[in-house]
Amino acid sequence: MNLNNPKLYHRALIGSLLLGGSALAAQNTLAAEIAIACGPGDASDYCPIAAQAWAEKTGNTVQVVSTPNSATEKLSLYQQLLGSQSSDIDVMLIDIVWPGMLDDHLVDLAEHLPEDATDGFFPALVDNNTVEGRLVAMPWFTDAGLLYYRKDLLEKYGHEVPETWQQLTETATEIQAAEREAGNDDFWGFSFQGRAYEGLTCNALEWVASHGGGTIVDDQGEVTIDNPRAAAALDLAASWVGTISPEGALNHTEEETRGIFQSGNALFLRNWPYVWALANGEGSEVAAKIGMAPLPHGPEGESKATLGGWNLAVSRYSEHPELAADLVAFITSREQQKAHAIQMGMNPTIEALYQDEEVLASNPSMSELYETLTNGVPRPATVTGDSYARVSNAFFNRTHQVLSGDLDGASAVQQLGRELERLGRRGW
């Protein structure tokens, strides 16, 4: 390996996988090579398939660069490459909360794509990817928080799916007690992600927003978290720990909570759409016994689900921005999103696909997701930009203190409000 060639050295370091185009492309001296950072080894496994289809269609060559599974490590790699203005990667898969952090290094796709390029996509996702009027990423697949429930147990004990958090609390308390009396001492009423990490930001934003307590920081950059409804939401959540939720919830992420629910030891679960197929799969204790619904809401709010998902962006340092943007448009097109949904079960970002007969035949639960995604609430990542990581860190740490019993809701939102105001004054 020639260490004097930084491009070769960089690619060797991050472990890349070459996907060749067609034989015609190999002979075409005008063909370009586009490097895309996505998969394999995570939810984006369809990305190399779609990228290869584009290569064969256009006569170009695509190099798929493997990136770490950990979102934190993936972001660090991107920041390193972009910070050095490396042209090694043309297209990158970015998390929904990264556009505001990376926008200075990303191409405005509106300059390379048709005016109608975002027509039909969920507006909230397009807005999330638009920073100061620049479209820095196209939405590829999305997620939103959902409530999973044991429909057999609700029927057994004569309860409906709860519409409010208070109803969930009361139903979970009653059925948990009954199931334990029947001999299942490991049974819990509600399983959620309570570790001090980004997942808790997602959970707590749903509690606060669904109580009418705002979104931590609003679209204008104003800090809104210090209010009684937000405090009440956090206090209610704290009441679950050790009662209808295990003490271990304070260290649970998505997979721990799925394990509890899928083993038959929880009535309710808050998690992402990926759980549906797994919980209904072979070997699951709850297969065919579960339902999926929008999350509950507070007494003065409506159901809110935190939006998740991944997007495709083009580096400002790409030597072929026009071709890179064309690859992004191809992968996020209706045809490719439909195939992604059918083959991988991922949730499209184009609204019409939630009524597509073939998509619904492959995964009937898709139709139930539509309203949840339409009303989804984004984290305040775009408006806070580079500061989002600190905003989220402060929010989930204060929330974790409430869940742990170290702070009450009112004190937590007051302290958090002051902390975020100081951060905001220095400029988001």
UniProtKB/TrEMBL annotation:
Q: Which residues form a coiled coil?
A: none
Q: Which residues form the signal peptide?
A: 1-25
Establish whether keyword Metal-binding is in the entry: no
Q: Name one Pfam family in it.
A: SBP_bac_1
Any one GO CC term of this protein is: periplasmic space
Q: Which SUPFAM superfamilies match?
A: Periplasmic binding protein-like II (SSF53850)
Keywords (A to Z) from UniProt:
Signal, Transport
Cellular location(s): Periplasm
| Top-level taxon in the UniProt lineage | Bacteria
Q: Which family does it belong to?
A: Belongs to the bacterial solute-binding protein 1 family.
Q: Name the chain's protein.
A: Maltose-binding protein /trehalose-binding protein /sucrose-binding protein /palatinose-binding protein
